[in-house]
Amino acid sequence: MSTTDLTAATFETTVQDNDIVLVDFWASWCGPCRMFAPVFERAAAAHPDIVFAKVDTEAERDLAAAAQITSIPTLMAFKDGQLVFRQAGALPAAGLEQLIAAVRALDLTEAASAS
User: Fold this and answer.
1) Is 30 a catalytic residue?
2) Number of structural domains the chain divides into
3) pLDDT single digits (tens) 8-39
4) Is 31 one of the annotated active-site residues of the chain?
5) Per residue in 88-109, pLDDT tens?
6) Among the options 15, 23, 33, 99, which is catalytic?
7) The domain spanning residue 100 has which CATH number?
8) CB–CB of 103/77 below 8 Å?
């Protein structure tokens, strides 16, 4: 599966209507963003059950502001509609795979009862 472009109009429904959503906030002029893009694309192809989404921070300035994006690339992971991970900076392929495994393994009912 390829990546999905998100807009302010599609962001919330995409996050709410899918089990796991990874969102890459990027811009075309950002060198680290361009380096991370093929890593993100390969992971999308390897994990078709996960939604891999991209937000162009130049085109979606209001969405980037609402998400409090201050540095790009920023990667967010959502599970069952909840933000479970947020980090600025490009991840190497192995780091992205570790994140995917951790999000898959995360039991939100267990996490909620522990808090």
Assistant:
1) yes
2) 1
3) 999 999 999 999 999 999 999 999 999 999 99
4) no
5) 999 999 999 999 999 999 998 8
6) 33
7) 3.40.30.10
8) yes
Q: 3-state SS of 91-113?
A: CCHHHHHHHHHHHHHCCHHHHHH
Cβ partners under 8 Å of residue 53, min gap 6? 3, 4, 5, 6, 14, 21, 22, 23, 24
The token duo for 67 is: 């998400």
Give this prediction's pTM. 0.93
Instruction: Say what the pLDDT of residue 1 is.
Output: 61
In the set 15, 21, 23, 30, the catalytic residue is 30
Q: What is the distance, to the nearest Å, from the Cα of residue 76 to the centroid of all Cα atoms in its chain?
A: 4
Residues pairing with 24 in the sheet: 54, 75
Range of the domain at 44: 4-114
